[in-house]
Specification:
The complex is a heterodimer of chains A (about 675) and B (about 140). Chain A has 24 helices and 18 strands. With about 675 residues, chain A is α+β, with helices and mostly antiparallel strands. Chain A folds into three domains: about 10-245, 4-Layer Sandwich (Aldehyde Ferredoxin Oxidoreductase,  A, domain 1), CATH 3.60.9.10; about 285-480, Aldehyde Ferredoxin Oxidoreductase Protein, subunit A, domain 2 (Orthogonal Bundle); about 490-555 and about 585-675, Aldehyde Ferredoxin Oxidoreductase Protein, subunit A, domain 3 (Orthogonal Bundle), CATH 1.10.599.10. In chain A, strands 3-2-1-7-4-5-6 form a seven-stranded mixed beta sheet, sandwiched between helices. Helices cover about 40% and strands about 20% of the residues of chain B. Chain B has helices at about 5-20, 25-35, 80-90, 95-100, 110-115, 120-130, and strands at about 35-45, 45-50, 65, 75-80, 105. In chain B, a hairpin with a 3-residue loop joins β1 and β2. Chain B has a single domain (about 5-130), classed as SCP2 sterol-binding domain (Nonspecific Lipid-transfer Protein, Chain A). Chain B is an alpha+beta fold. In chain B, α1 (about 5-20) crosses α6 (about 120-130). Classes of the chains: A alpha+beta (about 675), B alpha+beta (about 140).
């Protein structure tokens, strides 16, 4: 059966509820205009309405849908779930625009309580799976329980099924993908409708070994890296989700209007200068832009300049040394993905190339200036299923710890000093800035948590610093356990604030400050206009409130790719949502619903233990760099946080005001927060 | 009031700065490596400077041509002279200026992108150049 928009002017999409413990699968159907269930599925075991209790459902798609589901599953009298326990609901939620003609919208989020932070976990990826999911008739999948054997979920227009796949356990993500597509078939079938190979969302050894920053890797090249959703899959014995679209059309209310909107958007994307650059060079062009802006991290964020090394990692060097073709996501003309090839030598490979974040995390952050070595490290992380940002972050901390005598045979103290058992199984003294060999070896150990090195680094940077003990505090370059993305906040003060208060730890996606401060996009319809002085802290609290509220819909729920979306206005978003869902959206509606989603995430994090003391930047970022474009600048965190807290109506402990929650249709959360007397806070080293 | 009183002063400041870059070993080799011909058309005051790193005739790695030129170029950039001046002082975000239409670009962006990492050292050179000309009041 091909799902199409119904004549009634209402569009619905299914949500599959999969309990891996019992192998029971139920289905509900969600109205894209309201988020309400229109068909309550037989046998759905949890919940009291989509969001539970008196809570109105959130935006129907992406993080909004995931929040509705999470509240339904976890606020039915049970305790908040252990991140790696069977009760933690793992939600795959596409945006309602995925699979429609609107370009740069084949996006989805994967959400659960995060094993990396202990808080709301959310990871965002593009590719083909979001479009395929929508075209198969589904908006989301909810996975609970734990399968007895390694299993996979298969999604087809006819329905969802679960089957055991012990033969896949232990394979890397590329090998897993190849099992469903035939080696080398890749995404060659793009645009071929029913002949398109299935989309595969797989974990590798890192997810199987419950590395808290394990990623979910889709069709080799699209990665949901942040907050450890791969480990949540591993905890459920879920090796992969495989989606066949069936070649249908995503259900929307007005497909014709969406086609008109596509024609409006394509020339704007075509003419957009930064997007032309990204089309020419891939996201690695952001590296050159970041050199200019002064946001590139060097040597674990200690340096603000490294001219000779950065040049060897820039877009020109990347293209000359590695370039072997382009790739894209469903329906997107930008084609920001790169194929790379290194013909011979220790870094020989052929396949998807590193994105900007990875070139920095596994390159400049570690002072590795051979872009081929970076590509190899990226290839390993993708195969093994590791978040490259977190991997780079923990390896950088380890190198610095070795350099300072905090780690290795010469360590003054701690669990790995003084010849402690097992500490020599890696040979820490080999770990130095700029040497890729030991880094590649460490990546293998981290993914398998092998030996002392694998166990220490495999817990992430917060875990490593806790193990190292006193004297290592300034190596903790994370917020709430999430390693910092590759944009130095000393050169971008709105980014600094956003890192500190983001709903998932240090995050560059849950707000639009990066776009605003780098000048890539502005949103005058909601008061986000340029120019913005990126190295000033004045007014950044107010800017961040608005940019988060907008991003909760634009980047997390609708979901528009934040790269392809450079060319989008809020009006484009509103018009697209109206045509797709049947609800007449306005810019005010977007901001109000974004605020509501933000409040719900903040409230959940409070219930999970996050407090005001956790809303802070790593110490290193409070000290000015001595060189480079950001030299001498430091974000004024006290002023920005004060403004932000006041505008968000957060109390002295960081709790959202019960009144704000109740006014935005979240009475259940308001009640729960009011009852919290003392919940142990997440501690940040 | 515009920063530059006339085209002659613009050529002295911005043109002179480009000529200074011709003799800086680091900037010269990198601009030359971009192999691109870019024309900057300024308004208020009207002026044109062409930087030719594609087929230069001088031995400096790239040519700097002041005034109108009939030769075709790869990239054509238009902006107010004030914007150009503030840009070279490091006070204008290039990406934002392009997005906001303060700088307009025609032609393939690739060559320009390759010059991005050079900008920060160039800013310092421009500031020094303006100071040495005795135009501190323009800073």
């Amino acid at each position: 059966m091909t799902p199409v928009a119904p004549e009634s002017g209402r569009a619905t999409a299914k949500v599959a509820w999969i309990d891996l413990t019992t192998a029971h699968i139920g289905e509900t159907s969600v109205d894209l205009a309201t988020g309400e269930e229109v068909v309550a599925g037989e046998g759905v075991a949890v919940g009291r309405g989509v969001a539970g209790g008196g809570t109105t459902p959130f935006f129907p798609g992406g993080a909004g849908l995931a929040l509705s589901v999470f509240l339904r599953c976890t606020h039915n009298g049970s305790a908040l779930p252990d991140p790696l326990g069977p009760a933690n609901p793992l939600v795959f939620a596409a945006g309602p625009l995925a699979g429609t003609p609107i370009p740069a919208t084949s996006r989805m989020v994967i959400c659960a309580r995060s094993p990396q932070t202990g808080l709301w976990g959310e990871s965002n990826l593009g590719g083909f799976a979001p479009a395929d999911l929508r075209q198969a008739g589904y908006l989301g999948l909810v996975v609970t329980g734990r399968a007895e054997q390694p299993s996979l979920v298969e999604v087809r227009p006819e329905g969802v099924s679960v089957r055991a796949c012990p033969e896949l356990w232990g394979l890397d993500t590329y090998e897993t993908y190849d099992r469903f597509t035939g080696k080398g078939s890749g995404e060659a079938g793009v645009g071929a409708g029913g002949n398109r190979p299935p989309s595969v969302l797989a974990i590798g050894p890192a997810g199987e070994n419950l590395v808290p920053f394990a990623a979910v890797v889709h069709n080799r090249r699209h990665v949901a890296g942040r907050t450890g959703m791969g480990a949540v899959m591993g905890s459920k014995n879920l090796k992969a989700v495989v989606v066949w679209s069936g070649g249908g059309r995503a259900a929307t209310v007005d497909h014709g209007a969406l086609l008109v909107l596509r024609r409006r958007l394509l020339p704007r994307i075509e003419d957009h200068i930064p997007l032309q650059a990204i089309r020419s060079f891939g996201t690695s062009v952001n590296f050159d832009a970041a050199i200019y802006l002064g946001t590139i991290p060097v040597q674990n964020w200690r340096r603000g300049a490294w001219d000779e090394g950065l040049e060897r990692l820039g877009a020109g060097a990347y293209q000359a040394r590695l370039g072997d073709g382009r790739a894209t996501c469903f329906g997107c003309p930008v084609s920001c993905k790169r194929e790379v090839r290194v013909a011979e030598g220790p870094f020989a490979l052929s396949g998807p190339g590193p994105e900007f974040e990875t070139v920095a995390a596994l390159g400049s952050l570690l002072m590795i200036d051979d872009v081929a070595a970076v590509a190899k490290a990226n290839d390993l992380c993708n195969r093994l299923g590791l978040d490259t940002i977190s991997t780079g972050g923990v390896v950088a901390a380890a190198i610095e710890a070795v350099e300072r005598g905090l780690l290795g045979s010469g360590a003054r103290r701690g669990p790995v000093g003084d010849g402690a058992a097992g500490c020599e199984d890696f040979g820490w003294s080999r770990l130095t800035w700029g040497d890729p060999g030991p880094v590649l070896e460490l990546i293998h150990r981290i993914a398998r948590r092998r030996g002392t090195a694998g166990r220490m680094l495999g817990g992430g940077v917060r875990h490593l610093v806790e193990q190292l003990g006193p004297g290592a505090e300034d190596l903790a370059i994370h917020v709430k356990g999430l390693a910092v993305p590759m944009h130095d906040p000393r050169a971008s003060h709105g980014q600094a604030l956003a890192y500190a208060i983001s709903t998932r730890g240090a995050c560059h996606r849950s707000h639009l400050n990066q776009n605003l401060e780098s000048g890539l996009s502005f949103y005058p319809e909601v008061g986000l206009e340029g120019p913005v002085d990126e190295k000033s802290s004045v007014g950044k609290g107010a800017m961040t409130v608005k940019s988060e509220d907008l991003s909760m819909i634009l980047g997390s729920s609708a979901i528009v790719c934040l790269l392809g979306g450079f060319a989008y206005s809020v009006t484009d978003l509103v018009d697209s949502l109206t045509a797709a869902t049947g609800r007449r959206w306005t810019a005010d509606d977007v901001m109000a619903e974004g605020r509501r989603i933000w409040l719900a995430k903040r409230a959940l994090n409070y219930l999970m233990g996050a407090r005001k003391a956790d809303d802070r930047l790593p110490r290193r970022f409070t000290e000015a760099l001595k060189e480079g474009p950001a030299a001498g600048y430091r974000p004024d965190m006290a002023t920005m946080l004060e403004e932000y807290y006041r505008l968000r109506e957060l109390d002295e402990s960081g709790r959202p005001s019960p009144n704000a929650l109740a006014m935005t249709g979240l009475p259940d959360l308001a009640r729960e927060l009011a009852e919290v007397s003392r919940v142990p806070a997440v501690s940040q080293t | 009031m515009a920063v530059f009183r006339d085209a002659a002063q613009l050529y002295e400041c911005i043109g002179g700065f480009f000529r200074r870059a011709q003799v800086d070993p680091n900037l010269r080799s990198k601009v030359a490596a971009a192999k691109i011909k870019v024309r900057f058309a300024y308004s208020e005051p009207e002026a044109t400077i062409t930087v030719n790193a594609k087929d230069p005739t001088s031995g400096a790695g790239f040519d700097v041509i002041e005034g109108p030129s009939p030769e075709p170029v790869d990239v054509y950039m238009t902006m107010k002279a004030d914007v150009a001046h503030r840009f070279w002082l490091g006070k204008v975000n290039l990406i934002a200026a392009i997005n906001r239409g303060e700088m307009k670009v025609r032609g393939p962006i690739q060559g320009i992108i390759r010059l991005l990492p050079l900008l920060n050292p160039a800013f310092e050179m421009y500031r020094n150049h303006i100071k040495e000309l005795g135009y501190e009041d323009l800073m």
